[in-house]
Write a structure and sequence with these properties.
Structural class: mainly beta
Mean pLDDT: 84
Shape: globular
Number of domains: 1
Number of helices: 2
Radius of gyration: 20 Å
Largest sheet: 7 strands, antiparallel
Distance between the termini: 68 Å
Strand content: 25-35%
Order of helices and strands: EEEEEEHHEEEEE
Length: about 190
Amino acid sequence: MVDLSNLKLVEEVIEVADDASYVDASAFPPPIPEGIYTFIQGKPEFTATSKGYLQATLTHTVAGGEQDGKTISFDRISDKTFERSGVRVNMMKDQLRAIGDRGTYTTHSEYATAIAAAEGKPFKAEVQWEGGCNHAGTEHECDWTSDKVFRVKWQKNFGGKDSIPCPTCGGDVAARAKINRRIPAQVQP
């Protein structure tokens, strides 16, 4: 028997559907097309990055148009600052500006409170497709951390398909929609 005594696990009773009604995992649907959408911000799940910055992972829902109700998952934003055109910025501030929040935040806690308060609020963002080969352990060393990784961006580069073969190992590179740019909301004077 495997020793699990050193793990902090939830209660022992694990109930799942029986074989007759069990629902197996299926392929992901195709990503939404590239473009600008109005989203409803999802509930943030907060973690710390390996370098100690606050990070939120969110799932947003498209509001309106042909893609109404579809989602963008695994949107990650953090309070790590970087320079954009010589000005200090961060992705959490971009998200807050997109919902119309022009507040000033200087601590992890202040950012977390503001991002949590934005749940359910609309914002606009530009979506682009991306994909990369992550067939770690293959003889071709296709993995996300390698300098030799095959990456593709933009829907047109997928040639009208949801996936393309990796030119290095031939593995399947699936397209994923991600938020490329958050559009600041217009603030009324």
